[in-house]
UniProtKB/TrEMBL annotation:
UniProt KW keywords: Cell membrane, Disulfide bond, Glycoprotein, Glycosidase, GPI-anchor, Hydrolase, Lipoprotein, Membrane, Signal
This protein's record includes keyword Signal: yes
Pfam families per UniProt: Glyco_hydro_17 (PF00332), X8 (PF07983)
Record protein name field: X8 domain-containing protein
Subcellular location: Cell membrane
Organism of derivation: Aegilops tauschii subsp. strangulata
Length: 467
């Protein structure tokens, strides 16, 4: 199965990948580009300006964001000639054959190189001036990736605020710069980190699954997705910054919808191993599916059953309902030269095999039908527990009650398959909605016979359209 990650709709964002190379066994850049093309990946972020990589991406139509590194940042901040030459050598020399559309100035400077904080905006400004001199300011946007811990407060979202040491000195002039140049704020957000540090948080809230929601006590907005809450904390934090275009002490007015400063995710993903047990392939797959659905503005609205709601608003967030979201998934490969806790975020192994099967369906073709069925190997106890969960969390199990049309065959396997599939379809066929602790499995042909009960002739079977 190919891992198709391009998704752009009239109301939705786009998904790309972070192509890091801190590994001993990665394929060469030309082979990597073929992998990107094979999987319809149309947006890539790299962490340098490696000539071999940039030449390999030429004439592919893949949009590329390059990086002026933290090591180069001081020179760019203090020397316009350095910035001019850097842009000439690393952007102009490849553009437009290589479709460079962004330059990130450093990476997580506040976290990784705080001694450079005061030089960050000057470096951004000089690189922007260099692009303007070469006529590239409209095509190539300048930004900087910011770790989420740049916020001193993130919950409730309405109290989101940047840290005192950077709010006025760096973030306020940076946001002015981004607005004036038509750029965007780039945030690196890993929701699982907030989950690990918040005892009692529902994992469904993390993984875009149905949940009861979390209410912001100030705005009274209900959040069904941790990522939505974190994004809104960033929007609220920006609104609290004073603007140079307002009177002293005035707060920045960013209205919902058109005209707001866009936030892009420079990195986001979920680990497939470790991290106190939250890192599993099933959880990573559920997170990826939910993230893709959110970015597409697809089947991620709210349900009407009395138990749960789906995780995200169809477009935007509760505070910014009309805001699209572009995302770079961290990352393309598992990289063995990274710290151990950063090695298991890849979509692919170095041999180019998918780490887990993900079907990132986009608008180019019809959605393929899929179904969730129970595994006969799960055992009665596991099937009963999963059946109880599905029926108690939104699946319509009335048809498998005694005397009802789908009661026979009266086996746990048949009843569980019926309930699993109903739950799976109602949750937009997200892969994570067919996990059930390992008791469920996704199939692409409508099952028949006892293994699926009689659901193949009753109302829980769906085709490629909406349920």
């Amino acid at each position: 199965m190919f891992l198709v990650v391009h998704a752009r709709t009239a109301e939705g964002g786009e998904v790309g990948v972070c192509y890091g190379r801190m590994a001993t066994n990665l394929p060469d850049p030309a082979t990597v580009v073929q992998l990107l093309k094979k999987n319809s990946i149309t947006m890539v972020r790299i962490y340098d300006t490696d000539p071999t990589v940039l030449r390999s991406l030429a004439n592919t139509g893949i949009k590329v964001t390059v990086e002026l590194t933290n090591e180069e940042l001081p020179s760019a901040a203090t020397d316009q000639n350095f910035a001019d030459q850097w842009v000439q050598n690393n952007v102009k020399a490849y553009y437009p054959a290589t479709l460079i559309n962004g330059v990130t100035i450093g990476n997580e400077v506040f976290k990784e190189a705080s001694q450079l904080n005061s030089q960050l905006v000057p470096a951004m400004t000089k690189v922007q001036a260099a692009l303007a001199r070469l006529g590239l300011a409209d095509a190539v946007k300048v930004t900087t990736p910011i770790a989420f811990d740049a916020l001193k407060m993130s919950f409730p979202p309405s109290e989101g605020a940047f840290r005192d040491d950077i709010a006025l000195s760096v973030m306020s002039p940076m946001v002015n710069f981004l607005q004036e140049t038509g750029s965007y704020l780039m945030m690196n957000i890993y929701p699982y980190l907030a989950y690990l540090s918040t005892p009692g948080m529902s994992i469904d809230y993390l993984l875009f699954r149905p949940n009861v929601g979390v209410v912001d006590k100030n705005s009274k907005q209900t959040y069904f997705s941790l990522l939505d809450a974190q994004l809104d904390a960033v929007y609220y934090a920006m609104e609290k910054l004073p603007s140079s275009s307002l009177r002293a002490g005035g707060m920045r007015k960013l209205t919902a919808g058109g005209g707001i400063l866009e936030v892009k995710l420079g990195e986001s993903h979920h680990p497939t191993r470790g991290h106190h047990g939250v890192g599993t392939r099933a959880n990573a797959q559920a997170f990826t599916d939910g993230l893709m659905s959110k970015v597409r503005g697809g089947n991620s609205g709210t349900t009407s059953n009395k138990y749960n709601r789906l995780a995200t608003s169809a477009v935007g967030t509760p505070h910014r309902p009309n805001a699209d979201l572009d995302v770079y998934i961290f990352e393309l490969f598992n990289e063995d030269n990274k710290p151990e806790d950063e090695q298991d975020f890849g979509l692919f192994y170095p041999n180019q095999q998918p780490v887990y099967q993900v079907d990132f369906v986009h608008g180019a073709g019809p959605v393929q039908p899929s179904y969730c069925t129970a595994k006969a190997t799960a055992g009665d106890a596991a099937l009963q527990a999963a059946l109880d969960y599905a029926c108690g969390h939104g699946a319509d199990c009335s048809a498998i009650q005694p005397g009802k049309p789908c009661y026979k065959p009266n086996t746990k396997l048949a009843h569980a398959s019926y309930a699993f599939n109903d739950y799976y379809q109602k949750n937009g066929r997200a892969s994570g909605a067919c996990d059930f602790g390992g008791a469920g499995t996704i199939v692409n042909q409508a099952p028949s016979g006892e293994s699926f009960g009689t659901t193949t002739i009753h109302s829980t079977v769906y085709t490629s359209g909406q349920p």
